[in-house]
What we know:
The protein is mainly α. The protein has one domain (2-298). The chain is 77% helix and 0% strand.
Amino acid sequence: MFMDALTMLLGLLALLTGLFSITFFTDVFDHREERAKGTNGGRSPLWISGVIGLVTNFFDTLGIGSFAPMTALFKATKVVDDAVIPGTLNVANTLPIIFMAFWYMNGIEVDFLTLTSLIGASTSGAWLGAGFISKFSKQTIQLTMGLALFATASIMTLSVVGVIDGFGTGDSIGLTGGLLIVGVVSHFILGALMTAGVGLFAPSMAVVYLLGLSPAVAFPIMMGACAFLLPVASIKFIREGKYARKQSLTIAFSGILGVFIAVSIVLNLPMDALAWLVIGVVIFTSLSMLQSYFNGKAV
C-alpha cells in the first residue's frame, strides 16, 4: 500500500518534471543563438557557473540551502546580471532539487501520511500564506527566526549529548494525532516564510527533530516540498524570459552532479552523525539570519 502511494506521488512529480523540462529545454533551444552570445543576463565563461552549481547544490543536498550562497557567488563573479538573478535561481536549481527529492523519498523510510501532509502544508503555505507573511518586516522575520533556530539548536544539542530527554527520538518515521497537526501547521507557516526569503530546510529540520522524528526524515520532507514548488514557479520565469538561459542550463547539469555526490554521503551517515549535521545546519542558518538582521539594522 505504501509503495503504491509513494509510486503515485513520485509519478506526479515525474509528470511535473517532464512539463518543466520540455518548457526549459525548448526555450533554451529556441534562443540558442542568443545563448551562444551570452546575452539575456548570462556572461561567460560558463565554467564558473558550472563550479557554482556543483558546489552550492552539494551543500544544498546536505540541507544548507543554495539560494543565498548562489546569489552571493553570482554577485561576486558577475556571471549573472542582477535583474535576472531571481529567475535564474529558480530555474537553475529546479532539476537538482527534483533529483534530491527522488533520491531521498526512495532512500529514506518515512510514513506516507506524514510525508504528504507536511509537503502539502509547505506547498499550501507558499501559495496561500504570502499575504499574511507580507505584513511582517523582513528584519522582524530574520530576528525572530534567527533567535528561534538558535534556541532550537541548543535544545537539540542538549538532547544529543543526553543532558535532556524528550526530543529527537532518532527512530520515529511518522507523526500521528496532535503531533501531526503541529507538524502540518508549522510547515504551512514555513512554506509561507519561503515567500519572504526564509529557507525551508533548516527550520523544517528543527521542527522534525523536536517532534521526535528521525533526523533523516527531514530530508525527503523538505526536498519534496521544494521539488513540487520550484517547477511551477520556474515555468513562469521561463515564459517571461526573466532568467539567464545558458547559465541556468550549465548550473542545472553541474548541480545534479553535486547532488549525486552529496546524497551518497547523507544516505550512508550513521544516525548520530546525521543528528550533528542537522544541528550544524540549524546553527549556521540561525547565525546567518541574525547577521542579516544586524547588517540591515546598521544600514
